[in-house]
Amino acid sequence: MSRHRTAALILTAALAAMAVTAAPAPARGTAVEQRAYRTGLAAYVYGFPPVLSRLSADKIPPQTLLSINAVSTPDARAIVLPNVDTPYTVANLDLAAEPLVLHVPAIDGRYYVFEFLDAYTNVIGYVGTRTTGTAAGDYALTGPGFTGTLPAGVKRISSPTNAIVVVGRTLLRGADDLPAVRHIQEQYGLTPLSAVAAGEPPKPGPILDASPQRVPPVLPQGLAFFDTLGDILAAEPPPARDHAILQRLAKAGIGPGRHPSTEALPAAVLHGLRRAASAGPARIRAMVATFSRRAHAGGRGWSLVTKGIGAYGTDYRLRAVTAKVGLWANTAQEAFYPDADLDAAGRRLDGHHRYVVRFARGRLPPARAFWSLTLYDKDLFLYPNALDRYALGDRSPGLRRDADGGLTIYVQHTRPPAGRVANWLPAPATPFTLTLRLYEPSPRALSGRWKPPGIRRVG
C-alpha cells in the first residue's frame, strides 16, 4: 500500500472517529454493540492467520526464489520457533498473471521439501523426498483461473488462491555442510510457464550467506485490521466452506472489499469493532494457552497434537493458534513437532533447575528423515550461549550413548561435568521451551504409540 494511500486512510479514519465522538456515546452493554464486539472477535480470530501471513510474506521479495545458505541464530526474531536443521528457500508468489514452474534437481541421500501454502495458511501441496522422491522434476504452480495446458513432463500443483507462500527446507548435516547445501540451492529454479514452454532453462534465485535481520510484522490496529482483512478477502476469495462465517461477519460490515473505518456503520457497531480489535491479540494469546493445556493432556509435559495442522477446514481457532506459535507449519505427515514447557510432573521448565531427557534404548524419535531437540527462551527464540548450541539430534557430533544404548540429554543453565558436555543443551536461567522435530515421522509417532519421554527435573 502506498504512503499516500495509508495517509488517506488514516485521515479518513480520524474523521470518522471524530464523527462518532460527536454522536451520543452508546453504553458498553447495548445489544448492538455487544453483537458487534462478539462478531469482531470472531473476525479477528478468522482473519489473524491470513493477515499475519500476508504481512510476513511481504517481507520476502516477490516472484523470486530466495535461498538462505545459513541457519537461524538468536538474532533471528521474525518468526518464533526457528529451526537450525534446514536452511530455507522461500518465495512470495502471485500466480494471477501466469503459473510459475519450480525446478528441483536430483537430490539423493539428503532430505529436502518444498511446502506450498495458500493465502489462508492451508498447505496445498508438497514437493520433496516424501511425496515426489529424489529425481529431478518440474512443477507448475497454478492459480484458480488457469485453464491452459502444461508442457510434457511438468506436473501441476493447483492453488485455490493466487497468492501463495513457498517454504523450502534442505537438510544440513553439520556446520561444514553448508557448501553442499549451497550447491543444491544453486540448482533450484523458479521460471514463468511461458518461458519454460519456450525452452528456457530454470531460473535460479539469489542466495544469501546469512539470515536477513528482520523484525516481526506489525499487525494493523483498530478498524484498520478489519480493513486489511477485507482487502485480502477481495483479492483472494476464500473457500466455499467459509460461507457461514462470512455471512456473520458481513452483518458487522466486515467482508470482501469492505472497510469498516470508512463505511457509514452505526456508532454502536463501530465502537464494538474497535473494542474487538483491541481485545483481539489477548484473545489469541488466551486461545494459545487453552490449546496448550488441552494438547498437553496425557503427554507427560509434551504437546502431541497432530490432527488438523496445515489442513484446518473450518477450525479457525486451530488455524489462529498455529499461526501464532508456528506460522506456515507443516502437516503432521511431513513433520511432527512435540513441544514442552512443562516437566513430567507438570511444572514449568525453568533454567533455575536441571533436567534430563532420556530416550531409552530403541525409543529414539521414530523419524525417517531426521529428528532434533531444540531449546527456546521464554519468548520462543533461540537462546544465545557460549557453545552456540541450540539443538541436539541425530546429526550432532560426539553424542555419548548410555551404557545400555539409550541416550540422555542434559538440559540446564550451568555447565555440566566434562563427560556430559557433548550431551548438554544449554538453557537460560529463566523459563524455556523444548521442541522436538520429527521429519517424516513414522506411523507409530502419529498414532501415539510412541511418545517423547517425560522431562525429569534432577538435583
What does this structure look like?
The protein is built from nine helices and 20 strands. By secondary structure, the protein is of the alpha+beta class. Strands 5-4-8-2-1-10 form a six-stranded mixed beta sheet. Strands 11, 12, 13, 15, 16 and 19 form a six-stranded antiparallel beta sheet that branches. 40% of the residues are buried.
Strand order of the largest sheet: 5-4-8-2-1-10
CATH homologous superfamily title of the largest domain: Domain of unknown function DUF1214, C-terminal domain
Q: Estimate the mean pLDDT confidence.
A: 92
When the domains are counted, the total is 3
Indicate the percent of residues in helices.
Answer: 25-40%
Radius of gyration: 24 Å
Which CATH-level-2 architecture of the largest domain? Answer: Sandwich
The main sheet comes to: 6 strands, mixed
The residue ranges in which pLDDT falls below 50 over 5 or more consecutive positions are 1-27
Basic shape: globular
Number of helices, where a helix is a run of at least 4 consecutive DSSP H or I residues: 9
Q: Which structural class best describes the helix and strand composition?
A: alpha+beta
| CATH top-level class of the largest domain | Mainly Beta
Q: What is the distance, rounded to the nearest whole angstrom, between the alpha carbons of the first and last residues?
A: 56 Å
